[in-house]
Write a structure and sequence with these properties.
Number of helices of chain A: 20
Shape of chain B: globular
Largest sheet of chain B: none
Structural class of chain A: mainly alpha
Strand content of chain B: under 5%
Radius of gyration of chain B: 18 Å
Number of strands of chain B: 0
Largest interface: A-B, 43 and 44 residues
Largest sheet of chain A: none
Number of helices of chain B: 9
Strand content of chain A: under 5%
Shape of chain A: globular
Oligomer: heterodimer
Number of strands of chain A: 0
């Protein structure tokens, strides 16, 4: 089954490359998303059926199945939304073709990074995500998008290079093991020289941390997320960050098994709290709602990074955090796409009376806000609550208070913008402008994601609970 | 012999930090490629394996000839200003780069538990080359110099990866994938999109996207 989801996108992109048809573009992206979703569900129920031509290199285990399912679900929703969204973009056929190929290859590279059981291969696929998504961010073809894509590729390529140094250092550390397969590294964790492993972790954390968007190496993220077309922003935020996070998680396990979890915890906590602080500062002052959402992604990744340092309960909270963040943030970005279509501006202060202009988008916008700030019934409430509980039980009261204060500032910052955008009276200028047309598939994916997230927040179904729990076991 | 070459590689990094003409820096980049080639030539046990040939091709053709010539082409095309335009004077750059190189060698001499393949000199020089190139990127204004800095970083990483070339040739070959990024940057600059949109290829025009509460 892993063969299918790895070979299919390559075949599809070749077909798209050779053909020149709009219908085919739409059809293949949606077909790929449906097959991908079915394959991911199949792999969840039959994890052992993954034996393939690539044998050891790609593997489904209890940890990456969670990330694979998130990717599949989010991609299915985004593909559906995208089908309507591209109509409003008025792309020429050749642009549309490149865009569709870009999306398919982007998903392919993330799938590879998630399924890979080999650190070198994960690295290659993470590098591929940068290259595949570069064109997608550049698509609006404006001065700003060019700037965003240059920064994105440049910063990420330096990050990727540093991660490569980390891999070399790991090889020096594990001279007796001489393998980059995670399984073999875990078994031989005792033979790894701690000095080199520590040094290697610093580089790996900086390198993959760049892709995850952890501060202080996050600077590409707000630019790229805000300039990319909304479906791409949703994919970047909800799935790309996760894929890079998975590599960090796997490396963290190695650190844990080598008895260096204390060192890793310190670094992760520092980067985590920095990410949250930076979000608190910038969200407060932001006048671009897509940038605001991008910063919120940095915050959520920071929270997840802190979570994995806090033992099993913390890791459970981090997994729940990643899961819920993906669903809610992708809805948030897709709804931002609706607002952009309606108002044709990203400036918060130029938007008012959203509820009056388009009732459904307005309510979706509010629902996304409730979800992302972790107000019940959002599952993010649960994950943050669990995290705080762990911090208090570890007697880290000062840290917990700072954490809580920063969350409050972020809640206020995002809340203020969302409320002024939705509930204020529509300005004359806004009422009169011809608004872009929204198709019904530009509401449905968000509504489904948010309902799903709310259900998990109120009552966690047993299969989700098992999924998260198994991921926690896979991390240790 | 190898030690001399490695030291020479370290010195090219210093030279790059003081030269102010972009053309000279590109020439030094090409020289780095040749030094890397010589290091491979002298250090490798004389067996003509495929990965050995690949390394020779990578250093001699790609690093020493291909990338520098493309960079020169960009330089000719954007015949605006051939100076690097550093943010800080070259003298300070030299002091800081020398400090990085010096401390790289001394610290690695005293602290690290080294194995057979990784001598302190090897580690110190390649590690400081990586740091120096990061410093080079952050202190220069032009986009082209950023790309040169990235190529320098890649050369440093390549030298570093040679330490494990015998056990894991795969990794050295994987490192070549970093060249793809350089290719993307060069394409971006060559196709001229960046030049026409940004007027001149300096990064100070890359500041439209920022966080600001104001109305812009």
């Amino acid at each position: 089954m892993t063969d299918i989801i790895l070979i299919l996108p390559v075949i599809f992109s070749i077909i798209l490359f050779l053909m020149k048809s709009r219908t085919l573009n739409n059809l293949l992206v949606i077909l790929y998303s449906v097959i991908f979703l079915l394959a991911a569900i199949f792999l969840y129920f039959n994890p052992n059926s993954s034996g393939s031509v690539f044998n050891n290199y790609f593997k489904v285990d209890s940890l990456n199945i969670l990330f694979l399912l998130i990717l599949a679900v989010v991609f299915a929703g985004v593909a559906l939304y995208n089908h309507s969204f591209v109509k409003s973009l008025n792309l020429v056929v050749s642009q549309h073709k490149k865009y569709s190929i870009g999306i398919i290859l982007f998903i392919f590279s993330m799938t590879g990074a998630i399924l890979s059981n080999h650190l070198g291969l994960s690295w290659v696929f993470i590098e591929a995500t940068t290259l595949a998504s570069a064109y997608l961010i550049y698509l609006p073809n404006t001065k700003q998008s060019l700037e965003a894509v240059w920064k994105y590729v440049f910063i990420c390529s330096i990050g990727i290079s540093l991660a490569f140094v980390g891999i070399i250092l790991l090889l020096i550390a594990s001279e007796q093991v001489n393998s980059l397969f995670f399984d073999e590294l875990y078994i031989n964790a005792g033979k790894i020289i701690p000095f080199w492993l520590k040094l290697s972790f610093i580089f790996i954390l900086t390198g993959f941390g760049t892709k995850v968007g952890l501060a202080p190496v996050h600077s590409w993220l707000p630019d790229a997320h805000s300039e990319a077309p909304s479906p791409v922003s949703a994919l970047l935020s909800a799935t790309l960050l996760n894929s890079a996070f998975l590599v960090l998680l796997r490396y963290y396990k190695l650190m844990d098994l080598s008895g260096l979890s204390g060192f890793a915890n310190t670094l992760l906590t520092i980067m985590g709290i920095m990410s949250i602080s930076i979000t608190a500062i910038f969200v407060f002052n932001s006048n671009n709602y897509k940038r605001m959402l991008a910063y919120s992604s940095i915050e959520n990744m920071g929270i997840a990074a802190i979570g994995i340092t806090l033992g099993p309960v913390g890791i459970y909270a981090a997994m729940l955090q990643l899961f819920a963040h993906s669903l809610i943030k992708s809805s948030f970005f897709l709804t931002a796409g609706n607002i952009l279509t309606l108002f044709e501006t990203k400036k918060i202060n130029k938007i008012s009376g959203l509820l009056k202009k388009d009732r459904l988008t307005g309510w979706l916008w509010i629902a996304c806000f409730v979800g992302i700030s972790g107000l019940p019934p959002s599952p993010l409430f649960l994950s943050k609550f669990l995290l705080l509980k762990e911090l208090f039980s570890n007697n880290q009261i000062v840290f917990a208070s700072v954490f809580l204060l920063l969350l409050l500032i972020i809640l206020f910052g995002i809340g203020r913008s969302v409320i002024t955008m939705t509930f204020s009276e529509a300005e004359e200028a806004n009422r009169q402008t011809e608004s872009g047309y929204l198709y019904k598939f530009m509401y449905i994916p968000q509504a489904v994601f948010l309902t799903g997230a709310a259900i998990v927040g109120i009552y966690t179904p047993s299969f989700i609970y098992n999924l998260l729990n198994n991921a926690v076991i896979g991390c240790q | 012999m190898i030690d001399t070459l490695i030291l020479l590689f370290g010195l090219t990094g210093l030279l790059m930090s003081i030269k102010s003409r972009i053309k000279t820096i590109i020439n030094i980049l090409s020289l780095q490629g040749v030094i890397l080639f010589l290091i491979i030539l002298f250090s490798h046990k004389a067996s003509l394996s495929l990965s050995y040939l690949f390394l020779i091709f990578e250093t001699l053709i790609i690093k020493a000839l291909f990338i520098p010539s493309l960079l020169n082409k960009i330089l000719l095309k954007n015949s605006v200003d051939r100076e690097t335009e550093p943010y800080i004077p070259n003298f300070y750059s030299l002091v800081i780069s020398s400090f990085i190189l010096f401390s790289g060698i001394t610290i690695s001499n005293y602290y690290a538990p080294f194995s057979v393949n990784m001598t302190p000199l090897f580690f110190g020089v390649s590690f400081s080359a990586i740091l120096t190139s990061l410093f080079f990127i952050t202190t220069k204004k032009k986009l082209l110099t950023h790309v040169i800095g990235f190529a320098m970083l890649e050369n440093g990483i390549f030298l570093f990866s040679l330490a494990i070339a015998d056990e894991m040739p795969l990794i050295v070959n994987l490192g070549v994938l970093l060249d793809v990024f350089i290719a993307v940057f060069i394409l971006g600059l060559l196709i001229g999109k960046i030049n026409t949109v940004f007027h001149d290829t300096s990064s100070c025009t890359l500041c439209n996207l920022k966080d600001c509460g104001c109305d812009d």
